[in-house]
Amino acid sequence: MGIALFWSIITVFVRWLFSKRESSVIRPRQVGYFPTRRGAISYDSSDQTALYIRMLDVRVRSQVGFEPERRGSHPYLGVDFRTLHSRAESAGSIPARRIQRLYSFQRHMLSSRLLRGTPHLNSLHILDEDYCGQARCMLDKVGSWNFDIFRFDRLTNGNSLVFLTFHLLNQYGLIELFQLDMVKLRRFLVLVQEDYHNQNPYHNAVHAADVTQAMYSYLKEPKLAQSLTSCDILLGLLAAATHDLDHPGVNQPFLIKTNHYLAALYRNTSVLENHHWRSAVGLLRETELFSHLPVEDSLNMERQLGSLILATDISRQNDYLSRFRSHLDENNLCLGNASHRHFILQMALKCADICNPCRPWELSKQWSEKVTEEFFHQGDIEKKHKLEVSPLCDSEANTIASVQIGFMTYVVEPLFAEWARFSDTRLSQTMLGHLGLNKASWSAMEPEASGSSEDGESEPARATEQPSSRSLSQGSQES
């Protein structure tokens, strides 16, 4: 009798769960409401200003037999952004990849417990002891500019963003100070990491972790460390972790010229950055991470988070740079002023977002190859559908070296030169030093590529053409 009753209860629960999964949407202001995660973004026609973020947990739906929904797909192009950069793998290569990702049964089981939101005292609990020790050693030097985020990601079984962000929040004492619920915080960080498209060569969770580590390095600089409040630091770290959330792996011009719904939703203005911000707000509300704070404080944090993320729009680079240069020329920056501190946080996040050319060559080269791969893949999609190829995305007209030299010259160097004026420290000089060496290394590769051509020309025409800053801004996806 007891067993029959048990199975009856289970059956009713499962039916209720599926009915909720098919009918519910996010209602941000409803307390205690946990919405179904869907693969799209929409807004209620009755309230044009209200955004409801709906995201899809593909893994769970595929296990229960649902057809995976297409995140960000465009009806004209038929491009599924979730699989845009995925590569076909042979049947024999899949077990090897799984072995590489799941180093032991212990890690697999404990990872599952983390994804279910089970709290643990040890922030690196899902690792084997050997990997745990190595990851801890790396976190002891998390402020080093030579920090190898690729190695840390391997040691954490692909969970670098979760562990790094949690470690930094804990190190600053922000979890205790803001009375953040540990379960909610872990769930938020896991969902953030899952909503990055790891099929993207560049705009993935590892990039977000790298930007978060760079942001931490800047927050430690004397001028910032002496002036920033705990709220500033919390916002800076959260903005770094979420600044490219749910990035589709293509740039804004691509979304605009394909009439993508995101471009229409945000009226062709900071399309990606608005999407990243709204996606982050959706996860904050879904996990109720700030639900214990007064409503006005919570909304204010969401607005400031948006202001930081929107500053990473590369098309507005000159506006921010001119304002920064003007402040430095007039020597009127006052970090006791809340608006000035926020502006410096914006500039710090902008620097962290495009700091790859300022990293040591071994790290910088890997990032350069990844972002150019993403550029060129977009160009291939545009050619396939007979669209105008975006600047820097044509693999036949550009090389990795030419793309990087132009980006360093017209975007990175001006920004970091002004940052060094603001914060003239050893770190700033180190970054400028790496930038100069990396640019020289890429420049040295260009003659080799041209010298191997059959016609014997000393330099291809494309190398002599200097790209405009406008085309670099439009073509760049490093934001």
Question: What brief labels describe this structure?
Answer:
479 residues; mainly alpha; two-stranded antiparallel sheet; 23 helices; 59% helix; 2% strand; globular
Architecture overview:
The protein is mainly α and 479 residues long. It has 23 helices and 2 strands. Strands 1-2 form a two-stranded antiparallel sheet. A hairpin with a 7-residue loop joins strand 1 (40-43) and strand 2. The chain is globular and about 80 Å long. The model is unreliable at 21-76, 89-121 and 449-471 (pLDDT under 50).
Number of strands: 2
Helix and strand string, N-terminal first? Answer: HEEHHHHHHHHHHHHHHHHHHHHHH
What is the helix tally?
A: 23
| Spans where pLDDT lies below 50 across 5 or more residues | 21-76, 89-121, 449-471
Task: Bin the strand percentage.
Answer: under 5%
Let me know the average pLDDT: 80
Describe the strand arrangement of the main beta sheet, using strand numbers: 1-2
- Secondary-structure class: mainly alpha
- Radius of gyration, CA atoms, in whole angstroms: 23 Å
- Using the alpha-carbon principal axes, give the shape: globular
Q: What is the terminal separation in angstroms?
A: 61 Å
- The oligomeric state of the chains shown is single chain
What kind of sheet is the major sheet? Answer: 2 strands, antiparallel
What level of helicity do the residues show?
55-70%
